[in-house]
Write a structure and sequence with these properties.
By secondary structure, this protein is mainly β. The protein has a single domain, classed as Porin. It has one helix and twelve strands, in the order ββββββββαββββ. β11 and β12 form a beta hairpin. About 5% of the residues have low confidence.
């Protein structure tokens, strides 16, 4: 299978804050992405050609005594849905391009942040851990994956930080109103723990994920792991990146 992605337009204003960053400015946020994707799969006699547009519009309140609110709507339009299988249009003669037409509440959360040391976010939110390997927003697809969650981080100022998240539900990339409810969203009772410490040129992270998928119980599991990610090299020359990771997965809550 071969896939070609072409992003023609990217306009981003006012992205949500990462942990230990100053609160972002208040006001309107706008994000648009126009995309062409071609998929050639030997299992199909026809290529998939998908022209899609993703738009997000949101609003962030002013930060008062550390508190702020953010809400965001997201919609995806298909311009030639007859030329690809978007998982809900029935065009099974074509390969899948998982960017169905969709409109939903993408994010709505309350955030509390104390200068640069602690942050707590409650509500529907973008949630990314490390390199997206276990938990992320699947940002390469048009419809973003978000979580109904509590997310808390604290930095101790000596290179050591802790993070905890409780996940109640995940809105998957196929859309909240997908006719296959198991594709649209999962109900969860999931606990994520992470501890990180700066070490040499990189960051050492230990993590524990306890995933109780109440929609698809047989997929429930736990991850225990250790990850070291580092980078280096001259600022004006060729740099290097290195990652070492060891993880073990076992059954959980089934």
């Amino acid at each position: 299978m071969k896939s070609l992605l072409a992003t023609a337009l990217l306009l981003s204003l006012g992205l949500p804050a990462a942990a230990q960053n100053p609160p972002p400015p208040s006001g309107l946020t706008l994000d648009m992405r126009l995309r062409y994707e071609n998929v050639s799969d030997d299992a199909f006699s026809r290529d998939a050609d998908a022209n899609t547009l993703r738009a997000r519009v949101g609003w962030r309140s002013e930060t008062r005594s550390g508190w702020s609110v953010f809400g965001e709507l997201e919609g995806t339009a298909n311009f030639n849905a007859g030329s690809f299988n978007n998982t809900r249009n029935g065009n099974t003669r074509y390969p899948v391009v998982a960017d169905p037409k969709n409109a939903e509440l993408n994010q709505l959360y309350v955030n509390y942040q104390t200068d640069a040391t602690s942050r707590v976010t409650l509500g529907r939110q973008r949630l990314i851990y490390d390199n997206h390997r276990f938990f992320g927003n699947v940002g390469w697809r048009q419809n973003e994956q978000t979580f109904d969650a509590l997310d808390a981080t604290h930095s101790f100022g000596n290179g050591f930080s802790l993070r905890y998240s409780y996940l109640d539900r995940v809105q998957r990339i196929f859309g909240d109103d997908h006719p296959n409810r198991d594709l649209g969203r999962w109900n969860l009772s999931t606990h994520l723990f992470s501890a990180s410490h700066a070490l040499g040129p990189g960051l050492l992270t230990g993590y524990a994920h306890f995933i109780d998928n109440q929609t698809l119980p047989l997929t429930s599991h736990q991850n225990l792991g250790l990850r070291y990610a580092a980078k280096g090299g001259p600022a004006d020359g060729i740099g290097w990146l290195a990652t070492l990771e060891l993880a073990q997965q076992d059954n959980y809550a089934d």
